[in-house]
């Protein structure tokens, strides 16, 4: 148990490791990661030094959206294991001093969810149908959708059912939005929160946290902003779909459930809202924390990074009692080693450039992996020295780049599925490829595509299933270059990304336990190209972190250099490098 994890407010300064279960570790050889696979890697995670794991959905699902289409919120997908496997995983994690966070998906269910099936069967006007957002269509026979909204994954946001009505789906058509004005929905999700809390879960990550409250009544649907789905960032709470004030009533209600437990359960919201509204979700009488995605959106640019840090610290101050979060990568964005290794264009065009690069299978721009890796090393140290919680996405500790050239016919993400005919988007699978654990388990180059392997999986799956037959290939193809990033290779290399993460996390735990107060973190002016800050260190000295983005080396202050992300000599900090110093 880390000292931090013995406190009830452990989550304020936590390092949370995101597990995307289907791609983390496969224990039974079916090519899909599973819960027993997570349990088998708890030692690895303990050695890494994380305080908690957050599991993306592992519930029964048809995988229309990587598990975010949940058929049963209070169960484990049989392909991923059983409730007993889950309980065992929680037990092993807790014994290792690691907390467990699960993902709650309350904006929509899967279309196969029993409540949606009941809504379909019960017909228009029924109480069952009121649990979702059904409307009559336009046109003489209701043959047109209620309005022209486009879903976030492409295609119409309304789907017609056999009796003629239409239901709203902001995401895939297999993900009908639920109606949070219906009391049954409140009861259903409170039951789910209690269910997982009773199974020892320490906290929750709330999917699409800013989307639950909707107002589809004040203005006729066909007179609403045709781009209301896409116009997510709203300053004045007037969007019919996003970031409405009433959403906070739901989280205050949930806080009462969280506080039924000792210690109270914790939650972090995925809320894509304007920075000045983040603190509303993070307030301690609501979720407690919210993701600050500015790092994940920033390119390797000193101004973008500085503004991400300042926005995070400011939002933490506004919550009075909570802390901010730092996120560089997750299962929805291209891996940051690749992002930082692509041409660095102004922030506004950066994501478009990455999308364009993916669309062309990683050929349209040169990806400088060496440079991207150097920057990623500097970035994680800059991030982990800051007050607040850091979320690490699986494989980031291995420095994995994005797999940009997955063949189109092997993709699973719905985004390319809807746009495939037009080939305008490649989707999010490139960061969801199963992890490489073991460099001795190397696939043979496949005939059909020289870059990818079959027949072995870098230790993602066992060689054989329990019945002795060969394991299935991983559900997404692994590139042959994965070998150099395998955990065993990095374990044996002192200079690897994995060992940098281990050392950084262990120093963070010993040097920075004193306080996580945002107010104690002070910016240091070391010139425009340098991001530098200081905080009190646990031994009463001042801790400082310096990152140099500029080409000219920077003179470091006097003190003990405890860690550097790259070579530092003669007190000079080179470009794209971070150092941690205990100041004299
Ligand atoms: C956010 C999740 O992170 C993403 O993966 C998912 O597609 C959407 N929410 C819809 O649930």
Automatic annotation (TrEMBL):
<dbReference type="InterPro" id="IPR006047">
    <property type="entry name" value="GH13_cat_dom"/>
</dbReference>
<protein>
    <submittedName>
        <fullName>DUF3459 domain-containing protein</fullName>
    </submittedName>
</protein>
<feature type="domain" description="Glycosyl hydrolase family 13 catalytic">
    <location>
        <begin position="18"/>
        <end position="432"/>
    </location>
</feature>
<dbReference type="Pfam" id="PF00128">
    <property type="entry name" value="Alpha-amylase"/>
</dbReference>
<comment type="similarity">
    <text>Belongs to the glycosyl hydrolase 13 family.</text>
</comment>
<dbReference type="GO" id="GO:0009313">
    <property type="term" value="P:oligosaccharide catabolic process"/>
</dbReference>
<dbReference type="GO" id="GO:0004556">
    <property type="term" value="F:alpha-amylase activity"/>
</dbReference>
<dbReference type="InterPro" id="IPR045857">
    <property type="entry name" value="O16G_dom_2"/>
</dbReference>
<dbReference type="InterPro" id="IPR017853">
    <property type="entry name" value="GH"/>
</dbReference>
């Amino acid at each position: 148990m880390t000292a931090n994890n013995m406190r009830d407010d452990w989550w304020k300064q936590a390092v949370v490791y995101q597990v995307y279960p289907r791609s983390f570790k496969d224990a039974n050889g079916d090519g899909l990661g599973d819960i027993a696979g997570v349990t088998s890697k708890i030692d690895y995670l303990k050695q890494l030094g994380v305080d908690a794991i957050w599991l993306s959905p592992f519930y029964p699902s048809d995988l229309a959206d990587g598990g975010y289409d949940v058929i049963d919120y209070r169960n484990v997908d049989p392909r991923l294991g059983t409730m007993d496997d889950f309980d065992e995983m929680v037990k092993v994690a807790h014994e290792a001093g690691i907390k467990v966070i699960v993902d709650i998906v309350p904006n929509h269910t899967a279309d196969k969810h029993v409540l949606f099936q009941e809504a379909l069967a019960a017909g228009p006007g029924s109480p069952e149908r009121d649990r979702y957002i059904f409307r009559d269509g336009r046109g003489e026979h209701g043959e047109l959708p209620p309005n022209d909204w486009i879903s976030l994954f492409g295609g119409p946001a309304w789907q017609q059912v056999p009796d003629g009505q239409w239901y709203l789906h902001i995401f895939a058509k297999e993900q009908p939005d639920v109606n949070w004005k219906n009391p049954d929905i409140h009861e259903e999700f409170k039951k789910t929160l209690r269910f997982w809390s009773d199974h020892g879960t320490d906290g929750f990550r709330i999917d699409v946290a800013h989307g639950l409250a909707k107002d589809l009544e004040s203005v006729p649907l066909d007179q609403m902003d045709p781009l209301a789905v896409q116009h997510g960032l709203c300053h004045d709470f007037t969007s019919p779909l996003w970031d409405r004030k009433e959403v906070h009533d739901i989280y205050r209600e949930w806080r009462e459930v969280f506080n039924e437990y000792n210690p109270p359960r914790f939650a972090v919201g995925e809320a894509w809202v304007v920075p000045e509204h983040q603190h509303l979700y993070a307030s301690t009488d609501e979720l407690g924390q919210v993701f600050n995605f500015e790092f994940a959106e920033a390119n390797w640019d000193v101004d973008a990074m500085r503004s991400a840090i300042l926005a995070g610290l400011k939002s933490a101050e506004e919550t009075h009692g909570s802390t901010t979060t730092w996120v560089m990568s997750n299962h929805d964005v291209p891996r940051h080693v690749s992002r930082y290794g692509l041409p660095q264009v102004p922030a506004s065009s950066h994501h478009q450039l990455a999308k364009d690069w993916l669309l062309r299978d990683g050929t349209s721009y040169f990806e400088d992996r060496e440079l991207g890796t150097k920057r990623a090393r500097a970035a994680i140290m800059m991030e982990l020295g800051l007050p607040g919680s850091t979320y690490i996405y699986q494989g980031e500790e291995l420095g994995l780049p994005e797999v940009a050239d997955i063949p189109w016919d092997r993709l699973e993400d719905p985004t390319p599925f809807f746009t495939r005919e037009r080939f305008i988007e490649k989707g999010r699978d490139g960061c969801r490829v199963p992890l490489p654990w073991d460099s001795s388990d190397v696939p043979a180059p496949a005939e059909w595509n020289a870059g990818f392997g079959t027949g072995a999986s870098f230790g993602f799956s066992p060689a054989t299933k329990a019945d002795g037959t060969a394991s299935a290939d991983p559900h997404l193809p692994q590139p042959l270059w994965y070998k150099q990033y395998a955990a065993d290779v990095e374990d044996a290399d002192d200079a690897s990304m994995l060992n940098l993460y281990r050392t950084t996390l262990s120093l963070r735990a010993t040097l920075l336990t004193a306080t996580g107060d945002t107010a104690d973190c002070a910016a240091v002016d070391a010139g425009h190209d340098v991001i530098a800050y200081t905080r009190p260190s646990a031994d009463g000295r001042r801790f400082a972190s310096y990152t140099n983005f500029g080409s000219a080396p920077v003179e470091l202050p006097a003190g003990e250099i405890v860690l550097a992300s790259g070579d530092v000599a003669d007190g000079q900090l080179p470009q794209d490098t971070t150092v941690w110093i205990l100041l004299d």
